[in-house]
Design a protein that fits this description.
two-stranded antiparallel ribbon, Growth Hormone, Chain: A, globular, 2 strands, transmembrane transporter activity, mainly alpha, transport, MFS_trans_sf, MFS, Major facilitator superfamily (MFS) profile domain-containing protein, disordered N terminus
C-alpha cells in the first residue's frame, strides 16, 4: 500500500485496503464521512442557487440566451481543466490541502458573485460573470476531485455505497439550492442568496481542517491517456458527459422555459427543480449498496438508466414529432424520472472505472484514484460545457423542445454504444473460456 495517514495516532488511522469487509467503521472513517458530506452539501447548494433566477437577471443586464449558456459553460471548461490538473497532481498537492483550498476559493467566489448586480449592465457585468465563475470552477474542481479520491481511498470496499450515501447530501444541496435561492431572491433581492450561502461554505473550511485526515502517497507514472485506451472506460466517460450535458442544459434553459410557458415565478421554478433532485437523492444510496454487493450489475444499471434518461428528455418538451402539448404535470414527472435514472446511471460509473484501471495494470493507491477522479470530473465538466451552450443555441434558434430532444438523442446513443461494447466483451470472454475448457478436455496425442 503506497499511502498512509501522516502523523496520526493509531486510533485515527483508517484501515489498510483489504478484501475483508470491516464490521464497523473506524473513528477516522466516521469523521471523514461527516466532513465529505458537509462538503457535498455546502458546495452543491451554492452551485444550484443560480438556476431559478440568474438567467432572468442576466437577460435584464443585457445578456442573450446564448451568453447565459456561455456563462454556465465557462464554469464547465475551467472545471474540466481543473479536474484534469488536480487529478494528476493530487499526490504532490495533497488531498486534504486541495479540498480545503478549493472550499475557500469557492466560498469567496460565491460571495463575489452576489455583488455582481452592482456592475454596469452589458460588457462589464458579463465579463465579471465569466471571471468569477471561472475561478469558482477551479475551486470546485479541487474540492470534488479530492472528495472522490479520498472516498475511494478511505472506503476501498464500499466505494459505490459511500458515494451513494454522500449523494444524499449532494441531492439535498441541489434540492434546497433552487427554492432557497429563489425565495431569498424574491424576498431580499439578488445579493442575499449568494452572501448567505457563500458564508455557509466559508464555515466549512475550519471544520474540515480539523476533521479531515492527512494522506501521503507516492506519485504514479501512469497517465490519463493510458486509462482512456480502455474501450469501456471511454464509453463510460461518454455516458458521464451526456448525463452532465442534460443537467447543464436544464440549469441554463428550464427556468426561462417554465416562466414563459406556464407563467411561473422564480420561486415556483425552484420548487419544480426539487422534482429532479429528490428522486436522485433517494435512489443513490440504494443503487450504491446494490452495485457494491453485486458488481456485475454496474453496466446494466448504467445502460438502463441512460435509456430511461433519454426517453424522459424526449418527453420533457415534449419532442415536436410527438405532437403533444407542453404540460406542467408532464414536465414535473419527467424531471422526477430523470433524477431517479440519473442515480442508476451515474453511481456505478466511478467504481467501474476504478476496476477497469486495475485491469489495465494501474497500481492501487491515491495517485490512481486521483486520476480516476480527475477523469470523471473532466468528462462531467465537458458535458456541463456542451449542454448549456449547445442547448442555449438550439433553444434560441429553434425552441426548448428541440433542444431537449437533442440531449435525449445523445444520451440514448451513449447508452446503446456501452451496451454493444459490453455484449461484445461478454461474448469474447465466453469464447475464451470455451477455448480454455476445450484445450483442457483435449487428450494429449502420443507421437
Amino acid at each position: 500500500m503506497d499511502a498512509h495517514v501522516a502523523s496520526q495516532p493509531a486510533e485515527n488511522s483508517f484501515p489498510a485496503e483489504t478484501t475483508e469487509q470491516p464490521t464497523r467503521m473506524t473513528r477516522i472513517q466516521i469523521l471523514t464521512l461527516i466532513s465529505l458530506a458537509s462538503v457535498n452539501f455546502s458546495s452543491m447548494i451554492c452551485y444550484s442557487i443560480l438556476g431559478p433566477f440568474f438567467p432572468n437577471e442576466a437577460v435584464k443586464k443585457g445578456a442573450s440566451q446564448t451568453v447565459v449558456g456561455l456563462i454556465f459553460g465557462c464554469y464547465a471548461v475551467c472545471n474540466l481543466i481543473g479536474s484534469m490538473a488536480m487529478g494528476r497532481y493530487i499526490v504532490q498537492i495533497g488531498a486534504k490541502f486541495m479540498l480545503i483550498a478549493g472550499l475557500f476559493v469557492s466560498s469567496v467566489c460565491t460571495i463575489m458573485f452576489g455583488l455582481l448586480d452592482r456592475a454596469p449592465p452589458g460588457a462589464p457585468f458579463i465579463s465579471l460573470c465569466f471571471i468569477v465563475r471561472s475561478v469558482d470552477a477551479v475551486g470546485f474542481a479541487a474540492a470534488m476531485t479530492s472528495t472522490f479520491a479520498m472516498t475511494a481511498k478511505i472506503f476501498p470496499n464500499n466505494v459505490a455505497t459511500v458515494l451513494g450515501s454522500l449523494e444524499i447530501f449532494t441531492g439535498l444541496g441541489l434540492i434546497l439550492g433552487p427554492p432557497v435561492g429563489g425565495w431569498f431572491y424574491h424576498s431580499f433581492g439578488y445579493e442575499v442568496p449568494f452572501l448567505l450561502l457563500g458564508c455557509l461554505l466559508l464555515i466549512m473550511v475550519p471544520f474540515n481542517i480539523y476533521v479531515l485526515p492527512s494522506i501521503e502517497a507516492e506519485p504514479s507514472k501512469d497517465s490519463f491517456f493510458r486509462l482512456l485506451f480502455h474501450g469501456e472506460v471511454l464509453l463510460i466517460c461518454f455516458v458521464i458527459g451526456t448525463l452532465s450535458a442534460g443537467l447543464g442544459f436544464i440549469d441554463a434553459t428550464l427556468s426561462l422555459f417554465a416562466m414563459k410557458t406556464f407563467n411561473l415565478s422564480s420561486g415556483y421554478v425552484g420548487l419544480i427543480m426539487i422534482g429532479l433532485s429528490l428522486p436522485y437523492c433517494l435512489a443513490s444510496p440504494v443503487i450504491g449498496y446494490f452495485t457494491d454487493k453485486y458488481p456485475g450489475t454496474r453496466i446494466g444499471f448504467t445502460v438502463t438508466g441512460g435509456v430511461i434518461t433519454a426517453a424522459c428528455f424526449f418527453l420533457l418538451g415534449p419532442a415536436p414529432f410527438f405532437h403533444i402539448k407542453s404540460q406542467l404535470w408532464l414536465l414535473v414527472l419527467m424531471l422526477g424520472l430523470i433524477g431517479f435514472s440519473l442515480g442508476m446511471t451515474a453511481i456505478p460509473t466511478f467504481p467501474e472505472i476504478i476496476t477497469c484501471a486495475h485491469e489495465q495494470g494501474f497500481e492501487e493507491g491515491l495517485s490512481t484514484l486521483g486520476m480516476v477522479s480527475g477523469l470523471f470530473g473532466a468528462f462531467w465538466s465537458t458535458g456541463m460545457f456542451y449542454g448549456p451552450i449547445v442547448g442555449g443555441l438550439i433553444t434560441q434558434r429553434l425552441n426548448f423542445e428541440w433542444a431537449a430532444t437533442v440531449q435525449g438523442a445523445m444520451g440514448l446513443l451513449a447508452a446503446l454504444l456501452l451496451l454493444a461494447y459490453s455484449l461484445c466483451k461478454r461474448n469474447r470472454q465466453r469464447l475464451r473460456e470455451d477455448d480454455q475448457q476445450s484445450d483442457e478436455n483435449t487428450p494429449l496425442l502420443n507421437g
